[in-house]
Amino acid sequence: MGVVTSPKQDRSRVTRQRLLEAAVSCLAERGWSGSTVSVVAERAGVSRGAAQHHFPTREDLFTAAVEYVAEERSTALRQLFPEGGADRREVVTALVDLFTGPLFRAALQLWVAAANEEQLGTRVAELEARVGRETHRIAVEMLAVDESRPGARETVQGFLDMARGLGLAHLLTDDTGRRARVVAEWARILDGALG
Amino acid sequence: MGVVTSPKQDRSRVTRQRLLEAAVSCLAERGWSGSTVSVVAERAGVSRGAAQHHFPTREDLFTAAVEYVAEERSTALRQLFPEGGADRREVVTALVDLFTGPLFRAALQLWVAAANEEQLGTRVAELEARVGRETHRIAVEMLAVDESRPGARETVQGFLDMARGLGLAHLLTDDTGRRARVVAEWARILDGALG
Question: From the UniProt annotation, which stretches of this protein bind DNA (chains A, B) (predicted)?
Answer without folding.
Answer: 36-55
